[in-house]
Specification:
The complex is a heterodimer of chains A (about 375) and B (about 280). With about 375 residues, chain A is α+β, with helices and mostly antiparallel strands. Chain A has eight helices and 21 strands. The chains are: A alpha+beta (about 375), B mainly alpha (about 280).
Chain lengths: ~375, ~280
Amino acid sequence: MATLNLNALGKTYPGGVTAASDVSAEISDGEFVVLVGPSGCGKSTILRMIAGLETITTGQLDIDGSRVNDREPGERDIAMVFQNYALYPHMSVRKNMEYGLKNEGLPKAQIAERISEAARTLRLEGYLDRKPRQLSGGQRQRVAMGRAIVRQPKVFLFDEPLSNLDAKLRTELRAELKALHHRLGATFIYVTHDQVEAMSLADRIIIMNAGRVEQIGTPMDLYLRPATRFVAEFIGSPSMNMLEGRIGADRASLSFDSAPPLSLRGDLPGVEGQRIALGVRPEHLDLAGDSAGRIDLSVRFVEQLGADTVVHGAVSGAEVPLAVRLAGVQRHETGTVLPLSYAPGNLHLFDADSGRRLEVEAG
Amino acid sequence: MVENRPILNFVTHAVLILGVLFLCFPVWMALVASTHGPDALSKSPIPLWFGGQGWDNYTQLLSAGLPAAGGVPIGMMMLNSLIMALVITFGKIAISIISAYAIVYFRFPFRMAFFWMIFLTLMLPVEVRILPTFDVVTKLGMLNTYAGLTIPLIASATATFLFRQFFLTIPDELVEAARIDRAGPVRFFIDILLPMSRTNIAALFIILFIYGWNQYLWPLLVTTDEALYTVVMGIQRMVNSGESLPVWHFVMGTAVLGMIPPVVVVVAMQKLFVKGLVESEK
């Protein structure tokens, strides 16, 4: 259990490649923080810098108020779970869990106690004398978690621990992880590229892109008020529709290059002619009751998911892709035009050049 | 080719059996010859089945040796061969696994230069560097010692390279997990790397033991003391024992005895070797 303070952390490799820069965050005791982003965004680098597996080139990392930049991984009081489990193949499950404790010089009785407790928690009691290769992927990952738990570290670090598992197992283990966090009350830092995992697990999400932090906030902050266009498109599935255009003269319509203008209710922020991106989530679009829809969608294809139906198409008359998520099972033929409506509060506006969020002015 | 035709089966088996017979015939002849008296092999027809003198021949070989060949008992020579082969094998494995560990896991200046230097020694087998090596050994006063017999043969680029390649396949995460588990470099080497290399060590043990056991030219050069003769040298000396006729039954008996330890090593280690191939530890 610990607080972490990431102060402008940066990593530049000797070759001159910068993997992460100016990453700052405060992580409080017992928090479940998820670092999320596309591959190559530097999220793993940040985690590895916290673990001490990667040297920190700029900035400072504090655990519980003391600087740990130059401490060895073993001296930082952290435990890490790796994507490919990283179990010692020649050791039994028990030996795998014992190894770190033995190196710490813990008395035998205490080691045995911790292991039996971890095994009970993770339902591994029957497997303690097996070798890792005799276990399934899910069991191996539980052993890796067990190896972390028995250490009773201040901080747990997870590097995409569920990515090698199949979808069903992933959901199961996700729930187990959440329960584990509840019971241990420890600080968890978790890296994933899967936004669903991030949304479902995190107390707070740090979303990264190209080595920089895009936004830090609760899952609902990120979903409801994405700070940048990148965040808006990364969170949510199918991802947010983005309509790029210019603000019209009346500041209430959006004109496209090759389509009739779209009129919006309320004043748009910014100046006339400014290029902006208008975002609206597929689940926030609905079929308009009458023909007075604000956007017309010409249907290209339909994904039937059972609980929802996702209709993909384009804004009628323009080549701007648009998707809408409708509740229940619905049939729509390719080529038909659906009038869609939305609540003005569900629109997000971003500057097309900087990607920054623009607040819609009241009115 | 996964075909199942009776004729093809017959032909392939016949070829295999012929091959086995062809390879085994000399061994069989050595076994047979070692059980006959001195005269049986000099006249035709050469016997193809065991004679009655096996016991006498072998007891004399093991206890007394041959007067014409210096009178060193074969048992003594076998012990010398064993010591030489084992020292070479363990020395080679120890040195090469440690150097491979250094090259793969540590960042030090001129790391690759060292690697390539080791690699280049592949081009300099004993036969090529035999004069300078002999000179060095002489000046160090190591003639007629076990040290002189073994140390010059211990450095091994091949084994270093093999271990390096194996270490490169071990995922980095394993090293990192060990670092987090507070295993320092020595701990990691002993607790993780050595046990994981078990099957590679076994495979190398087989190859290197036979290499060491079969050394001929080097022992011939550095030993003049009969107490240090090896089996392979012993056979050579028996064949060229002055004016008298070669004592073929003793020569063959020595050859058979000389074959036993490598066979034992292969049979014993093969299980571990095959196990390592079947169970992939990843």
